[in-house]
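Supplementary Methods S3. Input chains for the assembly prediction are listed below.
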Amino acid sequence: MNWKKHDYDDIPGTYVFDGQRAHPAYALNKLLYTFNQQQNRDAFDADPAAYCDQLGLNAELKEAVVQQDFMKMLRLGANIYYLAKMAVPRGMSVQDIGAAFQQITTPEFQQKLAEKGHNLSAKLETKGDYWHG
Amino acid sequence: MAKIIGGVTSSHIPAIGNAISQNLTQEPYWKRFFDGYQPAKSWLEEAKPDVVVVVYNDHGLNFFLDKIPTFAIGCADQYHNADEGWGLKPVAPFTGNAALSWHIAESFIAQEFDICTCQEMLVDHGLVNPMRALFGDQEPWPVQVIPLVINTVQHPVPSAKRCLKLGQALKVALESYPEDLRVVVIGTGGMSHQLQGERAGLIDVEFDLECIDKIATDPEWLTQMSNTEIIRRAGTEGIETIMWLVMRGALEQKCNVIHKHYHAPISNTGAGVLVLENQ
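Predicted structure tokens for the full assembly:
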């Protein structure tokens, strides 16, 4: 197969979810989609490997799922919204996954986020027409 | 004739739903974010819309990746929320307006927007959370709801320019509906954020503020950017901000800016509320 190159391919640390990513990971995203239902979450928890087999995952996808390796699943083509369907019921937030992607702790990830809002009130005041409470 | 009173924008991040359900809205982390919704809520109370058209993207509740319409409209009498896998308790169902939905669908297709019509549609946090933030939890909800779904999840996704044009087509559709209805269009999503990859946690406050300012007064500005340029600045999930342009396109070129609110970070996101009123 000859996948077309895109001008977003060179954005660092970014995996734009297009056909080239969605196609090889179709079974993986389908598995993650089944987690919308409680009975499927329970069936997966009871035997993750068997559940992967049932959903037709190949060995590489299955390994990433069973290891709950979010970076690996992302690289293999998992969509982030679908990954969240696996993470959140396990008590993980998207910030925990974000920290895992960067190999830092969640508090470090949250600190980096908090810095983005530094001096926000002052910035908004200079613009004049924003709500200030 | 249906009359478009104005437009409102809101983030739709899942954490909004959790914060409301867990009564955290006045906690220090959330207070400024939610307090900034109050002027929008007051405006809606006074505007008393009969119908809201909510523009959002589905995140894998109604649509799986097997079939992804670029544009889809709910054409049902009722829309249910359901488990998205995150343990959020579904909210009360929303009442639709099937006759208006089908009118909009016919008008869109006549205007060469070949939209997918859905006679059954589950609505996810993309629609539910802006409704909860803007109206508070209500049963029944005080307005009829028309879901208008834009694909911002699986690329190729439509351009910002196309979204503005869809909004302009929505204006034509609504204004040719014979019944006297008061309509507000709600554009949801954004603003800058990236949830995935090593670049997760990206927020660009400058870009977000420019978007709010320009969408209010010069929406063509955002249509000059390609999706790649928007993703570069605002993140892969920040592309959702193009949905604000559907709201903007449905309004008059010149409209009154009633309210601007911005907060960052909230969850992983820069979040904006913009209230525009037709003159």
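Residues 73 and 117 of chain B are 5 Å apart (CA to CA). DSSP finds ten helices and ten strands in chain B.
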